[in-house]
Amino acid sequence: MKIQSCILACAVLTVLSFGTKAQETFTIGNSTLYATDLVTDSQIPWEILWGGDDMLWCSERKGRVLRIDPATGEYTTVLDLNVTFNGNGEPGLLGMVQHPDFPTDPRVWVVYCDGQFSVSEHLSVFEWDGTALVNEEELLTLPGAQIHNGSRLMWLPDNTMLMTTGDAGETDNSQDLESLNGKILRLNPDGTVPADNPWPDSYVYTWGNRNPQGLCIGPNGNIYASEHGQNTDDEFNLVEAGRNYGWPNVQGACNTSSENAFCAEWDVMEPLAAWTPCIALNGLEYYTHDAIPELQGKVMMAVMSGFNDPIPGRVIVFDMSEDGLAVEGQEAYFSSYNQRIRDIAVNPYTGAFYLAFNGTSYPGSPPNIIKEFSTSDPSGVPSPVVTPVAVRPVPAQGSVEISVTEGAVGGPLVIRDMAGRLVYEGSVSAAVFNLDLQDWAPGRYVIWTAVGAADLMVR
Question: Which of 93, 334, 353, 408: disulfide with 449, CB 3.0–4.6 Å?
Fold first, then answer.
């Protein structure tokens, strides 16, 4: 597949002083973005996410979890783990997710590596007590290594979780269905195996992966992953249950005689896009807010590159086909930083986004900064607050009106009760629609869409 080359589409307009925080101004199309340093003393930020408590949460490879006030940048350390080599290499504290109904359900799942020369990788769940993450429960342990540990976490609409794992530096792991390395795994929240996984009693959801480190759900509910190649063919992939992604027998597209034979035998999924030489792609985010029209409905991908070498951009934005099954174009932004960008998070109210910078060289030298990019000029009037999913009335009886931002239209609509049982599954038909509640039992439910979640109270 041929897609247009990445083009630089970002210009630095001016540098301003704003209090004690550095601020730059950028343009994306007709949108002006104001960049502000939010946290300047982070220790290799790895995962950043917008929390259900309207705070920004960050996992750091050196072992800390930070809870950050997005208005001020002030933070508290809510977890501090002992990790491999203090997070100075590739292993350490990695992926993190909260329960979709956080903080009502106060659980937080994290992946971290411990041990020094014999490394183990753990998926654990903690409880948020309002001050710290406590009461660790280990759900899954697999072999880790000094390289290629994954590991991004993401919820699916059916209340199961995906977890990416690297091949741990042993390429044979990826094609071995008995190994959990070099895979994307699917688990229940309690760490058990979902009954409908592709292979009975196995966590394996996809195989033949090298080191996937980005996940998101995009248009029409499609799942995407970013995956590190060896020297060639970093990949942006469509994730499908049970599919083989080829490593180490196939890199990128099936385009040699040996690769074609392997692809035909094992039904290998080819990437939607690939890069040679590798650019060290990472976190993914589906941008659905209308604050930045040039990004709305597009997939954003963080790019690190490996060794202080300039590339056309550090955030790549994909223009997807209407069905989400093909990349129709891509643009690259923020090349002027020439720093490793690890992850992306979006403020669901204002449409501002946050980038986690991992310094200028591998594997994460200073400066390590979390920056906010907003359409709101800090010296002027703030952008209006837009709720991604709104429910009226509260409580509801008979029917309920649900309003969503445009990015949710056409995507999944899933509603579960507080025991996690599925009570409704469909798609979002319009930005404002009504749902019949005549036969619903009184109680509290959680509505899940592509742009966020909301509570539903039925009386």
Answer: 408
The CATH number for 11-374, chosen from 3.10.450.350, 2.120.10.30, 3.40.50.300, 3.30.40.10, is 2.120.10.30
Q: Three-state DSSP class for 262?
A: helix
CA distance 260 to 207: 18
| The two structure tokens encoding residue 307 | 């060794």
Alpha helices in 12-73 (DSSP H): none
Spans in the chain with pLDDT lower than 70: 1-23, 306-312, 379-386, 419
User: Is domain 389-458 given the CATH code 2.60.40.3080 in the classification?
Assistant: yes
What's this model's pTM, rounded to 2 decimal places? 0.84
Q: Which residues participate in catalysis according to the annotation?
A: 148
Cis peptide before 384 (omega within 30 of 0): no
Could you tell me which residues come within 8 angstroms of residue 248 by beta carbon, excluding any fewer than 6 positions away?
A: 171, 172, 174, 175, 210, 230
List phi, psi (to 5°) of 174: -65, -35
C-alpha span between 454 and 400 (Å, rounded): 13
Which pairing describes strands 353-357 and 341-346: parallel, antiparallel, or unpaired? antiparallel
Strands 412-417 and 443-449: antiparallel
Helix (H) or strand (E) holding 106: none
Residues in the chain: 459
DSSP 329: E
Q: What is the largest CA-CA distance in the chain?
A: 64
pLDDT digits (tens, 9 = 90+) for 329-338: 999 998 888 8
